[in-house]
Amino acid sequence: MAHDPNFIVALRGYDMKQVRALLRQGEAALASDSPAERAAAAEALRRPTFTVRLRGYDRQQVEAYIGLLAERLAPR
């Protein structure tokens, strides 16, 4: 999974800083051995809240990527 995905910048997209911050949290949790960190990141990914901006990341792309990241953090 790419650390910095190339999302399309679209009209009425998700706030780019907020998306990048959540992705950093998810990627850090993937690299962590801490079950608590992984669980917290998975929860944040299941219920993300982003501001919609005039210009932001394409919402469908972000949601699809976050879904994949959340699956990778799911307990096994």
Automatic annotation (TrEMBL):
Known InterPro entries for this protein?
DivIVA_domain
List the NCBIfam families hit by this protein, alphabetically.
DivI1A_domain
Would you tell me the protein name for this molecule? DivIVA domain-containing protein
What is the organism of origin for this protein? Plantactinospora soyae
Taxonomic lineage: Bacteria, Bacillati, Actinomycetota, Actinomycetes, Micromonosporales
